[in-house]
Amino acid sequence: MQLPLGFILAIIIAYLAYRAHSLSQGGAIAATIVGTVVFGFGGLEWAILLLIFFITSSALSRLFKKRKQGLDEKFSKGHERDAGQVFGNGGLATAFVVVHALYPESTIGWVGFAAALAAVNADTWATELGVLNPTPPRMITDLGKRVEKGTSGGVSLFGTLASLTGAAVIALPAAWFADNWSLLPLISLAGLAGSLFDSLLGATAQAMYYCPTDQKETEKHPLHTCGTETTHIRGWKWLDNDWVNFACSAAGAVVALAGLFIF
Ligand SMILES: [Zn+2]
After folding, report:
1. Tens-place pLDDT, residues 30-64
2. How many angstroms separate the alpha carbon of residue 214 from the centre of ligand 1?
3. Which bin fits 220, alpha (ψ -120 to 50), beta or left (φ > 0)?
4. How high is the pLDDT of residue 188?
5. CA of 154 to the centre of ligand 1 (A)
6. Which candidate, 121, 17, 131, 21, places its Cα nearest to that of 73?
7. SS3 of 234, please?
């Protein structure tokens, strides 16, 4: 009964998000799959965590759209999330719902799910709010080096605090629903760790391209926003933004689950 209900709710929310240009057509289909699994195999508490991520990240992208004008081309995609972004952000969390369905007595499903979402939420909050930092960010691999706002791998105090807040926004209901307050610091810090890992990949292994027309570094490939073909300058070609987001969620889940077993 919960699965068809989950499907109906997911399709309504995905359709509304598609109409509001928060999701592309492929993104809406992907979100329907994610939403159906999360509500169908998890339940209301699981769906609430997913919705907090989806609603706050979409709202932040819109809220700061104007202040970030000119920075947008540093990011490889616009505000309409496609299927790759949906699975990159929510794929691992969805897998943890399946873990919960198979092992309902284990806390691994819930903690892994919440931490994976906390990490991508932390990363989104840091990306959206970090650009409001008054001074340019510093490179995570070389904190003495200032880089242009929006550069992959750039970190700032404001962005880091935004990241921790974004993680806590998921960790708070996760701890509340589990009636286990040790999950609040655990999942918050795991989310922050995932987001920092995301920045580290952005500074090192993530595929980066160069637009000769604008003489700028970009995540965009094969074409830049201006229409010019971009050339690969560093990083692993397969490691695009979607895989970096997936790695971010994986790092968050690994840190939280390690903490769960150590403490
Ligand atoms: Zn260009």
Report:
1. 999 999 999 999 999 999 999 999 999 888 887 87
2. 4
3. beta
4. 98
5. 21
6. 131
7. strand
- How far, in Å, from the CA of 77 to the mean position of ligand 1? 14
Q: Distance between CA 257 and CA 108 in Å, rounded? A: 7
What is the 180 CA–ligand 1 centroid distance (Å)?
Answer: 50
Give 123 Cα–ligand 1 centroid separation in angstroms: 26
Residues 6+ apart with CB under 8 A from 128: 57, 60, 61, 63, 64, 162
Burial class (CB in 10 A: 0-12, 13-18, 19+), 104: exposed
Tell how far the Cα of 220 is from the centroid of ligand 1, in angstroms: 9
Which residue in 189, 228, 191 sits closest to 211, CA to CA? 228
End-to-end CA, the chain = 38
Strand partners, 23: 81
216 CA distance to ligand 1 middle (Å) = 7
Q: How many Å lie between the centroid of ligand 1 and the Cα of residue 202?
A: 20
The pTM score is: 0.91
134 C-alpha to ligand 1 centroid (Å):
26
